[in-house]
């Protein structure tokens, strides 16, 4: 298939794009490539890879690129509550309006797969897993914009994948994601202070996210017009439980819960992924396997741009 991916040079895209090319798809990536780095350099070996430098909000580019695609995957976004709070205009225009603009340009024969966030559940009831039927209650601009875009995709008959908190190594690495962050602190600092350690979230490896997209492409007709939670059913973990798993692989890692203070991110919920699992999807990466991968990966990274040594 001919697949258009906006924001394809990001954390998920830099894993997804080569996987789709290896499976014989033709992939066009619309991205600003603002970092000027080489996340997709290896993809240039495929003649079926077409990078386009531009902004996903540019309707002229959408007019030119969307009609040529069999499938559109809008990855371009400001990801995370802190970043959206810092630039709310960009958050609304990119996370919401750009996706709606792409949807409006689709013909009935075209498909759209949309990755949103399960943070739209906000604060769940204790001990009760959020399903796709659970009312959405986003508590940040990030969650609000992603839910609005999801509504447009579902009304068009597309598929929405509500991603758990993603972790794992990627060519365009992110250290701010919770598993990645805590493992980095364990490896480099051997310690972390936790606020509100009982808060729970669900997690998913970036390569299992890619597997979810591939599964949705293969099963599009039976899955269309539906939202699916995409996460590890074995990993509905509190921050303290996550740190305990990291400590099993990082000797000397100390984690303490602060007796005062609070986490500005108030998300606290567990998630059921049964609906997607019933379609035949299953994860390959456990949380333990992902932590081991991160530990290996962090031996290759330095995050000391402003350090003296």
TrEMBL record:
Superkingdom in the source lineage: Bacteria
Domain NAD-dependent epimerase/dehydratase: 3-231
A Pfam family per the record: Epimerase
Record-linked PANTHER family: BIFUNCTIONAL POLYMYXIN RESISTANCE PROTEIN ARNA, NAD(P)-BINDING DOMAIN-CONTAINING PROTEIN
Name listed for the protein in its UniProt record: NAD(P)-dependent oxidoreductase
Organism: Plastoroseomonas hellenica
Species classification: Bacteria, Pseudomonadati, Pseudomonadota, Alphaproteobacteria, Acetobacterales
């Amino acid at each position: 298939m001919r697949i258009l991916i906006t924001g394809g040079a990001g954390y998920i895209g830099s894993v997804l794009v080569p996987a789709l090319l290896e499976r014989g798809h033709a992939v066009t990536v619309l991205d600003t490539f603002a970092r000027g780095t080489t996340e997709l350099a290896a993809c240039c070996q495929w003649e079926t890879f077409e990078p386009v430098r531009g902004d996903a909000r540019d309707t002229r580019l959408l007019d030119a690129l969307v009609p040529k695609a069999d499938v559109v995957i809008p990855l371009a976004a400001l990801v995370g509550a802190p970043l959206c709070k810092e630039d709310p205009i960009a958050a609304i225009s990119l996370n919401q309006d750009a996706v709606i603009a792409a949807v409006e340009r689709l013909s009935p024969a075209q498909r759209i797969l949309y990755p949103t966030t399960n943070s739209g559940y906000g604060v769940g009831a204790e001990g009760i897993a959020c399903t796709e039927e659970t009312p959405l209650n986003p508590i940040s601009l990030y969650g609000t914009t992603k839910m609005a875009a999801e509504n447009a995709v579902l009304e068009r008959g597309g598929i929405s994948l509500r991603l758990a908190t993603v972790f794992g190594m990627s060519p365009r690495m992110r250290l701010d994601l919770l598993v990645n962050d805590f493992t980095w602190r364990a490896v480099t600092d051997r310690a972390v202070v936790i606020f509100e350690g009982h808060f729970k979230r669900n997690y998913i490896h970036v390569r299992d996210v890619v597997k979810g997209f591939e599964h949705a492409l293969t099963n599009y007709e039976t899955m269309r017009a539906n939202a699916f939670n995409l996460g590890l059913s074995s990993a509905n973990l509190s921050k303290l439980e996550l740190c305990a798993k990291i400590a099993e692989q990082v000797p000397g890692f100390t984690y303490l819960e602060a007796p005062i203070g609070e986490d500005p991110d108030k998300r606290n919920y567990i998630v059921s992924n049964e609906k997607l699992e019933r379609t035949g999807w299953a994860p390959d990466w456990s949380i333990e396997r992902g932590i081991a991968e991160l530990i290996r990966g962090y031996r290759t990274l330095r995050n000391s741009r402003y350090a003296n040594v």
